[in-house]
Amino acid sequence: MKVELSKFRVKEGKSKRVDEWIKYMHENMDDILLNLEGEKMYVETIFREAFNDVEYLYWYSVQDDNPSDSEDINIDEKHLRFFEECIDKRFRPEDMKAEIVMIPNRIRCVMNYDDEK
Question: How far apart are CA 85 and CA 82, in angstroms?
Fold first, then answer.
């Protein structure tokens, strides 16, 4: 199981575009959830922060060690276009290290997690 938390800086002036992206995801949640299942992505959460007039997005995810290919190429293309347009590549994404992963066994079983990996 792969647990990740990454921090990305939003380009200056792109907050409204981020609003549109979030709205798009809410409006297309059924398709997005199907896509996550196809990728063996168990949890994906996006957090938003504004600090000192700079906006950041944090991606938190729990995924199978061996993810599958995406089911919906259209959603992935939109996601990549959003990243290209809105994420500041001059800011190196910060990947946080998961020191402790606390997922009850009954949830791990549902996720088909195998402790022997």
Answer: 5
